[in-house]
Design a protein that fits this description.
With 413 residues, the protein is mostly helical. Helix content is 82%, strand content 0%. It is found in: Cell membrane.
């Protein structure tokens, strides 16, 4: 009996080995693609701001230039989901990246700030398609990649956007000049087109003829899934909170803690590093734990505690501890949410576009609301106000009787 069993086992192992090698190749290429993509986004924020200053624009005009890209990214996410659900991610990503390369070659030679704002709006539309394409492909491949790596996409993208990208932009401008910095960015987009062509698949994972019975796609069908509702809510709250703290952390460090300007960035950096640490290093520990739902609830409590510290204890130790707590809490929140959506029976392109949209709208709304309220009630009181939606959501979702996590689909919250 042993010989036939061995003969049956050999073909199975032969099939598993190439499959594992294919996943490793994809993961290495995808991480490189994501990091470089994040770097271009972070670098271009620096370049567009400095270009506006070079043109001698007013504060309002600079805000228009800066927000044009973000507004277009939010506006383009839902159409991007529809396009990618029916299109070819490889062709779309390459075409959009080459378009962006051409746009950044032209940007520094435009005659006025209005043209810069218009082109940045078009850039934002293109970037929304690229982001949704990458998040869609990652969610489709997540069951093969493994739950321990659920945070790798967002962690690597954040690392590029918040650290490597701005540093690269500053270095390029300091040593090569502003116009050359735009040409470097254009070259990076061209490189992304080639890398995306090699890494991304020709399908978003949607089967021909698939209907709502195969994967939830319509808004109504998605909203009927408790896992999707929970994910959407906590992603909006997380984006709302992260942007509020992120935008005003420099102000807190300078005005409340009286740190020198060159050190003020570390309050933001501590939060960002804690966030990336969770996404890149703690996926297996968090998602593989039998107490995963308790860790998820604990992460949301950590966020509320961070907001409480920021609102009540204006000293260096408390603010640094709050930044760590906020980064860890937001990181665990992102990990669990990504894994849930990766396992859920949903149209990944559609959900990716929704999550991208919620992140941008929540981020923009949080920053604007915090700025508006800070003038009337004070910035620290704004953080105390943000406690209310978190406490309400925590009580509603974490004090209910827990339900077992289904291995596929997570049809229950």
């Amino acid at each position: 009996m042993s010989a036939p069993l061995n003969q049956l086992a050999l073909p199975s192992a032969a099939v598993a080995a190439p499959a594992g090698a294919d996943v490793r190749r994809f993961l290495i290429g995808f991480v490189g693609l994501t990091l470089l993509s994040g770097m271009t986004i972070g670098m271009n924020k620096v370049l567009s701001t400095l270009l506006g200053l070079h043109l001698g624009v007013s504060n309002l005009q600079l805000a228009v230039i800066s927000s044009a890209e973000t507004f277009a990214m939010a506006l383009g996410t839902i159409p991007a989901g529809y396009i990618l659900a029916r299109g070819n991610p490889k062709y779309l990503y390459a075409a959009v990246s080459l378009t962006l390369s051409a746009a950044f070659c032209a940007l520094p030679w435009l005659p006025g700030w209005e043209w810069v704002a218009l082109l940045m709006f078009l850039v934002g539309l293109c970037i929304s398609l690229r982001i949704v394409a990458m998040s869609t492909v990652f969610l489709v491949r997540l069951p093969e990649i493994g739950q321990a790596r659920a945070g790798w996409y967002k962690g690597t993208l954040t690392l590029g956007m918040q650290f490597a990208g701005p540093l690269t932009g500053n270095y390029a401008i300091a040593h090569l000049g502003l116009k050359a910095g735009f040409l470097v960015s254009a070259g990076m987009f061209a490189l992304l087109a080639v890398l995306g062509w090699r890494v991304l698949p020709e399908s978003s994972g949607r089967k021909p003829g698939a209907n709502a019975g195969d994967a939830a796609a319509s808004w109504r069908a998605l909203w009927r899934l408790p896992a999707v509702r929970t994910t959407y809510l906590f992603e909006i709250l997380a984006s709302f909170t992260a942007s509020s703290v992120g935008v005003f952390s420099l102000l807190l460090a300078i005005r409340v803690l009286h740190w020198p300007h060159q050190h003020a960035v570390w309050l933001m950096a501590v939060q960002g590093l804690s966030f990336v640490l969770v996404l890149l290093g703690l996926g297996k520990l968090v998602l593989g734990s039998p107490h995963r739902e308790r860790i998820y609830g604990g992460a949301h409590l950590a966020i509320t505690l961070a907001l409480l510290l920021l609102g009540t204890l204006p000293n260096t130790a408390a603010y640094l501890f709050a930044s760590v707590l906020l980064g860890l809490g937001l990181g665990v929140n992102a990990l669990v949410n990504t894994d849930r959506i990766g396992r859920a029976p949903v149209d990944k392109a559609r959900v990716s576009s929704h999550l991208t949209l919620f992140g941008m709208v929540g981020g923009t709304g949080g920053a604007l609301a915090a700025g508006r309220l800070a003038d009337s009630i004070g910035l620290q009181h704004v953080f105390l106000l943000w406690l209310l939606p978190w406490l309400a959501a925590w009580c509603f979702y974490h004090l209910r009787k827990p339900t077992p996590v289904l291995p596929k689909g997570e049809m229950s919250a």
